[in-house]
Amino acid sequence: MIGLGTDLESATCSRAGCRQDALWRLDWRNPRIHTGERFKTWLACDQHVDFLRDFLAARDFPLTVAPLPGETDQA
Ligand SMILES: [Zn+2]
């Protein structure tokens, strides 16, 4: 249940203007507008995972970061 309407296997980074393949997923929630178990998911390449994580962490949003499946398949 990702809710992005996109195939994670070929997903690209969620950072504006970035078209690199996503290697990470960030599941986060804004406690002020999201209730219960409703999370949003961003995808990030290696370069932007830190940027996006810091962006969310600076707002005190609950956040989990995990590698995308398939990452280890790459040579
Ligand atoms: Zn990126």
Question: How would you describe what is shown here?
Answer:
The chain is an alpha+beta fold. The protein has one domain (10-69). The chain has one helix at residues 49-57, and strands spanning 24-28, 40-44, 63-67. A three-stranded antiparallel beta sheet has the order 2-1-3, covered by helices on one side. The chain is globular. The relative contact order is 0.27. The structure holds zinc ion. Zinc ion binds at residues 13, 15, 18, 20, 44-45, 47-48.
Strand content: 15-25%
Pairing-aware structural class of the strands and helices?
A: alpha+beta
Instruction: Specify the number of helices.
Output: 1
Unreliable spans: none
- By DSSP, the count of extended strands is 3
Attribute tags:
1 helix; Acetone carboxylase; 75 residues; binds zinc ion; alpha+beta; 3-stranded antiparallel sheet
Produce a short descriptive summary.
The protein has 75 residues and is of the alpha+beta class. The chain has one domain (10-69). The protein contains one helix and three strands; from the N terminus they run E-E-H-E.
Topology of helices and strands:
Elements: E1 24-28, E2 40-44, H1 49-57, E3 63-67
Antiparallel strand pairs: 1-2, 1-3
Zinc ion binds at residues 13, 15, 18, 20, 44-45, 47-48.
